[in-house]
Amino acid sequence: MYVCETRYLYGSMINLKNLKSLFIVTEEENPEASKTEENSAPVSNTTPPATRTVAPNTSGGGIYEDRIAESLFEALEKNNLEGFDYFEFKNSLKALSQMPLDEATRFRSAFATASTMGLTVDKLLQTADHYLKILGKEHVTFSDVVSQQKESNINGREQEIDRLNKMVQDKSEQIKQLTEEIQKHQADVQKTREEITLAKTRIEQAEANFNSTYTAVVTQMTDDVTKIKQYLISPK
């Protein structure tokens, strides 16, 4: 089995920049993905940048948003455990990805060297689970914010529409002198509807973007956990 050198494990400390690089692959790092996208993309008058973030495909209508990913990675960095753990192990896997090794060999080689630093399979899985729980807390926090925003920007506004419609109905029964006032309230109703539509669009898009970004990161980490169990606990 190929054992990765210590320099692959300690090329740099795990900070926010390095943490992001473990989960986000650029076209420079994945030229095949870039070539595939170029062949399938329509002709455009604009020239794309040389390096572009390539994130896993996700479902749910949202997109992988760098701003959301940044906040997730900041939470992970803030709760980074001391010592050699899942992130350092993933960093060594990333270094080994540049070598002509199959996936199982990369996992076993990275772990072979990591074990000399005191890392065990149990600790590897425990620390990965720790970081998944950190992301889970971020998801719960965001969901609470979304609920509050829906309550204040949508539900309350819908009640406002009901109130304004009642005023329109009451004033419509009055004579001509109330026509101007009725028209004003009708305009208010229309304005409020437009504000609700805009609020719904923004909130739903933000929610979809967060869920897509969250799913992309969690899917990668969960896949790593599955492969750790497959290759390191019961290797065939």
Describe the overall structure.
The model is unreliable at 1-12 and 30-55 (pLDDT under 50). It contains 8 helices and 2 strands. It is mostly helical and 236 residues long. Helix 5 (86-96) packs across helix 6 and helix 6 packs across helix 8. The radius of gyration is 26 Å and the shape is rod-shaped. Helices cover 71% and strands 2% of the residues. The longest helix has 55 residues, at 179-233. It has helices at 6-9, 16-23, 31-40, 66-78, 86-96, 103-116, 121-172, 179-233, and strands at 25-26, 53-54.
Helix content: over 70%
Percent of sequence in beta strands: under 5%
Give me the secondary-structure category. mainly alpha
The major beta sheet can be summarized as:
2 strands, antiparallel
Low-confidence stretches: 1-12, 30-55
The Rg value, from CA coordinates, equals 26 Å
Number of helices: 8
Mean pLDDT score: 78
Q: What is the overall silhouette?
A: rod-shaped
Strand element count: 2
Element-by-element helix/strand order = HHEHEHHHHH
Strand order, main sheet: write it out.
Answer: 1-2
Measured between the Cα atoms of the first and last residue, the distance is: 14 Å
Tell me the layout of helices and strands:
Layout lengths: L5 H4 L6 H8 L1 E2 L4 H10 L12 E2 L11 H13 L7 H11 L6 H14 L4 H52 L6 H55 L3
Antiparallel strand pairs: 1-2
Helix pairs in contact: 4-8, 5-6, 6-8, 7-8
The gist of it:
By secondary structure, the protein is mostly helical. Helix content is 71%, strand content 2%.
